[in-house]
Amino acid sequence: MKILKRSAAIAVAAAVVVAGVAVAPAQAATSAVTIWGDQNTHDAVFPSLTKWAKASKITVNWVVKDFGKLRAQAITAIPTGSGPDIVAGAHDWTGKLLGAGVIAPISLGANAKSFSKEALSGFSVKGKQYGVPGWTENIALVYNKKKVANPADTTSAWNAAIAAGQVEVGFSATDGDPYHFAAFDTSFGLSQYVRKNGDWTTKIGEGGSNGAKFADWLSSETGGKALNSGNNGNWDTLQGQLKDPNSKVAYWITGPWAIDALQKETSYGKPAVKVAGLAASDIGVTVIPSVVGSPVHQFSGVRGYWQSVKVPGSKKAVAVGKVLNYLAGPASQGAIYKLKKLIPANQIALKQVKDPILLGFGKAGKGAYPMASFVFQDTTWSTLGKAEAAIISGNTQGKTPAQFWQAAIDTLQSVIDNS
Fold first, then answer.
1. Are 290 and 296 in contact (CB under 8 A)?
2. Among 207, 223, 242, 398, which residue's Cβ finds the most Cβ atoms within 10 Å?
């Protein structure tokens, strides 16, 4: 999942501390497993993992890392032998981790049947499975029921809401946010890459006549320019405006990670405005309408786990395999749903989900495309995002929006073709 592009809700600024806990009396080195993951993942996974590990006589040490730095730190540390045995992160890290030569294939065994093809695909490369799916997340249209009794569900109503400044998306004024903007470009019949046989190719699918129309929409006063960025993607402003009864913002394109903040009293802005939390019954989640008419295919993401390339053949290979098997199973994934309301990737555990908000995300995400995980994916995010932001701001260097957009795509395609 794209680093720093799914908003601050993922707690990318978590402090770097060691949360290692010996979950059993001192074991032989063969039973000690080290996991690197962010604070939110630790808090969701570690309680149940601790209980299981103690019963299994395995010592699990969890090192909490800043989400935005974790992947790069693992790539640096693993070759030296000082890195983790298991990396916890977002599925679109797979290409970068594999390209760096720091992860090894895994076997899901009997658990493989419990995952959808889409969940598995984010962790697979050329037919090999490299990661264990943990939980899924996708964006949807979140709205304040106190402001909107019947949410926009047609193209005309959706465009009217955007033009009126009622819709917010947490994009950066300089870097844009192609992750969230997939809710718009796909409605023009575009996609980040051309899809073939249900999978991504390496051909950028954002250009041509439909790409020109999307670029013109981005530059329109009633289109991209009318979107509320939440003060350049500021998290407090985004969730504060949706809750604030005096703000015209009624819709937020975001993911399930935002729901907890929406239910808490917070302050935003200068001077600070205090806003009460919303009751769960006042939070609506629905399908994102199309601004043009083509189906919306927002991105879906899967959190999960990879094993270090240093593990296979090592003395701790068996212990690591047992930990990964537990993390893949319904007991672990059912526990994180109960504890943190995360949507299990394991289909057996998924049947436990009854929460109407999470079910709303699930319904909205049926047409979502899993994010690509190419080695060059960071370049794609950056290039498209910066181009979107430049068009919205009017900084197209003397070109029309359509010319500027196509030039960015052509440059990106050249980089991909020569990578």
1. yes
2. 242
Residue 373 is predicted with a pLDDT of 86
Distance of CA 311 to the CA centre of its chain: 27
Mean pLDDT of all residues in 308-326: 96
20 vs 282, which has greater pLDDT?
A: 282
Alpha carbon distance 257, 309 (integer Å): 31
Residue 381, amino acid: W
Supply the pTM of this predicted model: 0.82
For the chain, the first-to-last Cα distance in angstroms comes to 21
**Where residue 135 falls among pLDDT bands split at 50, 70, 90?**
very high
CB 258 within 8 A of CB 239: yes
Q: How far apart are CA 111 and CA 131, in angstroms?
A: 12
Contacts of 209 (CB under 8 A, 6+ apart): none
Over residues 277-300, the mean pLDDT reads 96
Q: Which residue has the tokens 């993951």?
A: 37
The single-letter DSSP state of residue 221 is T
pLDDT the model gives residue 30? 66
Q: What distances in angstroms separate CA 411 from CA 31, 49, 396, 402, 404, one per listed residue?
A: 49, 46, 15, 14, 11
Q: Which two tokens stand for residue 177?
A: 């946010």
Angstrom distance (rounded) from CA 175 to CA 154: 29
Q: Rounded to an integer, what distance in angstroms lies between the CA atom of residue 365 and that of residue 93?
A: 21
